């Protein structure tokens, strides 16, 4: 078990020395109720956008940012995710026998280094903060990234890579942020801004899903984070917040003033694939970027316009 006295951890080391960022935590225990019946027997993170499951996009993004160790926070009914990242020996053999070289190479390009994925079960769904706390042994004393696979990113420089660069620049916690219309702030973690420097925003507070009229800004957190390990000390209190859940945002807020904490206006676009309309938009947008599919997709869109 990790030493989790939050006060001691923070006061003894106000700024963590900059370690390389090699670890990522991916919470994948959610039930996916918004996609029932599709997700009755299948993990929502395995839903494909074009021909790749959501979880694969998140892992590819993290790997492109230099992440080497992954912790999936899973739950019951999520074994397909682990299978997906295993070597499919028989499938590879069959593809090789049939000279399906392109398909074989695509599979191999995605294969993971042995030992680079661990899974931890979140036995009870107590909230995102609780899910992240379940990774405390994996995280140890290292900074780590969090990727919520429901948020699918389309960015020239992968979003997690942008955060890692900002971590090296600021020396502390960084969350990816975007502006949303006021009437939607109550769905997100919201920034209380200390200083808005454009790309980087220093933060004096964070509120999870505030009522619209009480929201301190319309700058919201998306599902990409780089956090210092001290957040685990606060998470270990398992205090309930908005919606009666253990909220990650509440523990992140406690780091403010003790460690650097910034929001990063990332460059790119986010698709909320936890929502049906967002998921469908992602299918169209990602298909239109594929040379093999764009012409067909364009004529389909014309036909239905
Ligand atoms: C979670 C976080 C929230 C963040 C959002 C981004 O909320 O708690 O702070 O803004 O992800 O997608 P959820 O979507 O799980 O309700």
Automatic annotation (TrEMBL):
InterPro entries with a match to the protein in the record: GalU_uridylyltTrfase_bac/arc, NTP_transferase_dom, Nucleotide-diphossugar_trans
Enzyme superclass (EC): transferase
Reactions that this protein is recorded to catalyse: alpha-D-glucose 1-phosphate + UTP + H(+) = UDP-alpha-D-glucose + diphosphate
GO molecular function: UTP:glucose-1-phosphate uridylyltransferase activity
GO BP annotation list: UDP-alpha-D-glucose metabolic process
Domain of life the protein comes from: Bacteria
All residue ranges annotated as the Nucleotidyl transferase domain in the record: 24-283
Enzyme Commission numbers on file: 2.7.7.9
Keywords: Nucleotidyltransferase, Transferase
Family membership noted in the UniProt record: Belongs to the UDPGP type 2 family.
Classification via PANTHER family: UTP--GLUCOSE-1-PHOSPHATE URIDYLYLTRANSFERASE
Protein name as catalogued: UTP--glucose-1-phosphate uridylyltransferase
